[in-house]
Every structure is written in C-alpha cells, then in structure tokens.
Known about the structure:
Strands 3, 4, 5, 6, 7, 8, 9 and 10 form an eight-stranded mixed beta sheet that branches. The chain has helices at 2-35, 40-48, 52-80, 86-107, 111-120, 125-153, 167-190, 206-229, 239-256, 264-273, 279-312, 314-318, 332-350, 352-355, 366-375, 378-395, 399-418, 424-436, 456-478, 487-492, 498-519, 531-539, 581-597, 612-617, 651-662, 667-674; strands at residues 193-196, 199-202, 527-528, 550-553, 559-566, 570-574, 578-579, 601-607, 621-625, 645-649. Helix 4 packs antiparallel against helix 5, helix 13 packs antiparallel against helix 18 (424-436) and helix 16 runs antiparallel to helix 17 (399-418). With 675 residues, it is an alpha+beta fold. The protein is built from 26 helices and ten strands. The chain has three domains: 12-303, no CATH class; 329-519, no CATH class; 527-674, Aminopeptidase (3-Layer(aba) Sandwich). It is globular, with a radius of gyration of 27 Å.
Amino acid sequence: MRGRxxxxxxxxxxxxxxxxxxxxxxxxxxxQREFRNLRVADIHHAIVQIPxxxxxxxxxxxxxxxGVLTFYDRLGTYYAGHAVSYARVAFASFCAYALSHNLGFAxxxxxxxxxxxxxxxxxxxxxxxxVIAFCSLTFxxxxxxxAGTILFIEPGAVPFLGERVPHWAMYAFATLLWGIxxxxxxxxxxxxxxxxxxxxxxxPGSRMALAQVALATLDVAVTAAIFYALLPPAPxxxxxxxxxxxxxxxxxxxxxxxxxxxxxxxxxxxxGLAPYLPAPRIVGxxxxxRLYYYIIPLFIAGTLFAGNELALRGGTILRGGIAPIGRIxxxxxxxxxxxxxxxxxxxxxxxxxxxxxxxxxxWIDADYAAVAAQAGxxxxxLIGAALMVLAGAISQRVNLAWSVTLALLLVGAVVMVxxxxxxxxxxxxxxxxxxxxxxxxxxxxxxxxLAGPLDGATAVPLLTLGVCVLALAAFERHVRWLxxxxxxxxxxxxxxxxxxxxxxxxxxxxxxxxxxxLLRPRRVTWAPWxxxxxxxxxxxxxxxxxxxxxxxxxxxxxxxxxxxxxxRTVLLALGDPVGGGGDQVSAIWRLRDLAQQERxxxxxxxxxxxxxxxxxxxxxxxxxxxxxGRLLDRGDDPRNPKAESFLVCAAERDLPTLLAALSAPxxxxxxxxxx
Length: 675
C-alpha cells in the first residue's frame, strides 16, 4: 500500500509538467498548421492595417485592466485586517501582476513581490499570506462566473469543444460553475469559519464575497476587450463569443504554467478565431496584445521596483554603491525581472521581421552598410533565440549567464543601431541590460562549464556549440537568401528546399540545447555531518549542533548551515548560517536550491533578526519564539519585542508539521526534534 501511495504521489507531482508539455505540443501543432501558408510580410501588413483609433482604445483598456487589478489587493488588505493606502496597494499590485503575467508559475510568482512590499508596510506574514490567497481566489471566482454566462449564451464559443460537445452538457457545466460561486457567497454569509485539512479557513463576509465575484468578472471582461479592440469586424464574431475563445485560451496558458502562456495561449487563439479571421490578422493582434499587456508593463514595473529598492537603500548607495548580496539580500523580484526582460528582448529580436520593415542602410557608410545588410535578420534572430535560453539560466542565478547575457544584449543593440532600426529597439535591449547589470552579486551559482575540469559531459556540448556556430555562419555566408530572413522564417518557408530547412532547424536546435547544457547550474552539493564537518563548523566560531544530517557551505566556503531532513517535506536549517558575513546569504540560497533539488521546502529553527530579510526573500514567514523555543502569543508578528529567535517557514503549509515535531515536552526533547 505504501509503495502504491508513493507511486500516486509521484504521478500527481509530475502531472502539471506533463500537462504543460502536452498543451505545448498541441500549440506547436496548431501554430505549424496555421503558419504553413503564412508569410511574415502578411503579418506585418496586418499590423499596419490596425487603425490608430483601435490601438488607442486597446491601450486605454490596458490601463483599465491594471486599474481593476489594484482593487484585488485593496480588498485583500481589508480581508487581512490591515488596510493599506490605495497608492501603496496600486504599486504592489502592478508590480506583482506584471511579474506573474510574464513569468508564469514555473519561474516565480507575484507572491515574493507582495511579501517584500507588504512586510515593509507593516503587514505580518500571516496577513500577507491572506492577501495572496484572497487575490488568487478572486480571479478564479470571476472566471467561473463569466465562463458560466458565456456557456449559457454562446455554448459553441469554446474552441474545439463547442462543436463536439452537446449543448446540454455545456449548460450543465455552466450551472456547476455558477453553483460554485453561489455556494461560496452563501458559505461566506452562513459559515464564515471552518476547518479544512487541519487548517482554520476564514471566509470574508457575503458583501465582500459578492464584490470579489463582480470585480474578477469585470477584470476578465476588460482584459479580453484589449484583444477584441485590435481585431477587425468579422461576421459571426461578437464580443461574447470572443470572450469564450479568450477564456479558454487563457485557461490553457495558465494550465501550461509557461511564461505568459507563450505558445499555448497563442495557439489556442489561432484555433478559436480561425473560423472568423485570417491567420495574419490574428497573429498581428496577438503581438500587439502581448506588447500592451505583457512587455510594456513588465519594463515599467521593473523600473518602479528598482527605484523603490534604491530609495530604501539610499544610505548604502551614498556610502559606496549598491550593496552586495552579502550585506543586503537582493529580492527574487530583481532577478525575475531581469530574466523576464532578457526573455522579452529575445522575443523582440525573433519577431523583428514581423514588427518592422526591412531596414534602410543608406544613412551609414557604404562599407559598414554592406556588413549590416549581410547580417540582416539572420544574426539578430539567433541572438534572440540565445537570449531566450539565457533567460532560464538568469532565473537560476548562474554567474556565467550574467556575463554572456550582457555581452549579447550589447552586441544586439549595436547591430540594431547599425541596421537603422528605430531607436526603441536597441533601447529595449539596453534597458534589459540595465535590469541585469547592477545585480552581479545575486548570480552566485556556477555554470556546469566552469564547475570543474573539462570532461565529457562539458566537452561534448562545447564542441557541439562550436560546430553549430560555424555551420550557421557557413549557411549565412553561402546562401544569400538567408541574410534577409530570420532562421525561423527559413524553417517555416515552403519556398526553401526541405534539406536546407531541416539543416537549419537541426543546427539551431542542437546549438541551443548545447548552450543550455553548458550554462545550466551545477547541482548543489552538501557534506555529511561527520567529525571533519563538525570541526570545520566549530572553526567558524559557533557551537556545532548535537545532531545534523549534513551541512551546506556558501560559494566561497566561508559560511555554513547545518540542516536536518524533516518528515520528507522540510529541509530544516539549524539556525542562521555561521561564518563570514559576505558568504552567509550565498549559503542560505544554496540551502534553498538543495531543498528544491530534493523536492522539499526550506525552513529554519532559531533564526536571528539580522537575516530575516534574506529568509523573507525566499517567501518564508518569521514566527517569533521565546527563550524556551515556544511560539509567542502574537505568533505572526516578527516585530514582537519579546522574541528571542524565530521559526522561519512557509507558515501556511509547514507550520503544523513543524509544531508537531517541536512540541515534545522538555527543552532537550525539543532540541532533539529540531536537530
């Protein structure tokens, strides 16, 4: 029985990833089918045909959509019992949603942003967790209400299913969706508190529950209006039918957990709108929608959040520049914005042939013009694909990726200027570089390429990458037509010989795969708790714990954290890292990485005040403890003056497990459980 239970847990753990891959494969099939007879010039022509008035209306709907989202957090702070001014709520909401919209659940969510900002404004970890849960639930309620309405009015609007599923089944499903919302509102009125799986759940009042449903319904309707405004009138496509397509596509993107639902959302929109509009019009609207709702907000949010960080650290900056990670931890948000900026810069270079006409080189010297023209779109598209891969390594905090990314962004900006592209194109690349450059010390993980002596595991991908670069250079030099097109245009074009299409596709795929294998971070290693490690630990000036499973060292091996594995779910650090201050934060992040490798969640027993900000950047709550290691009455307020130390954990998930392990009578028993 136990083996079967473990097998089911393993299946469920991998189910989201499998679903995401399945949806992505389906999206690739749809996109490939629609692009078979589609030319880039057609997409560019479709974008040019969008009236200026439609662009202005769509931009106005974008402002309204993000404005509606601010009220999610506004209501959430009321629900948490700690109201925050609207200006602060709007700032936190915009930064959080701009991040989560772009990077998806696989990278990092907006929860880290809310923890960072709301904690600074006086909310306790428990209150912040309630705000996050409130916002997540609100969107789901609105989606169900609007989806139920559409299924009753336009049951055939759902892509693929609308023509294959009987209408009575659609009506039944719509009734179920409405029933969930009605049940929630009724429960909020009659059963405000109940216990679920050992947790006490407190619902808002019925008025706030109704406000949640109405607000989220308005949010989805306004966001869909952005896309709808960019489409030309089409017979049979009214707003309600379009919202059905949009909701189904957006839901598929969420299930895939890809950044911005990239590929899955686009493929579903192509499939759902194909009966009404030609593919170039749909693709053009998708590109502008992503520009308005994803790309521009991310860059604005990155600038605002960076300015907020600089304002908070003004004294440190005046004394000698941005503080290194060893003294003041950099939030996940800074690295996440950098990764998102790099990924979007790569997407921009890949889509350059669609967004802009062929550049004019007449304004520069003839010799340089020849070089720029030879580069064409082939080189920028390859740089864009490499940046997409590097964005993944940036999100993993790989130090080599930081250097290579800056180099490629600068090279790309120079190429764009030389080719006479509009100044906003190299400006976007330079802005992305500015989002990454100041945080060099946040990238502490070594790439596999530099993790040790050259062996087969690194020599093969390194050789493969070199061969692919030479092959692509040979293609571009000897096949003149390639210089005027991006590599993906070559692969998709029916006018190119199949042998050349296959050669370019295989070369690019092998090159990107080799680049990722070289740049991906090496696995975090840990040392078993033995006499040697106890001696090294004691040499750092700390008393070694009586028992431990192992120890994690910082990158410079000047700081260490002893840990225990607890109940197959938690990697419990036994106090803050000991040793050199410049390496303490690195040790904490390596502990987090080790926990992720082992599919556990990090926690720390008896943390001090000095590093609470670092633990908070991991999305962990600090619960104050007294001298005997018991939770204080105000167990959700880290500012409690009676606190001697802290239990740091994902309070909403791991607190019951930790309390059970730490509740044995007597200090000695508690120490044994903690250790």
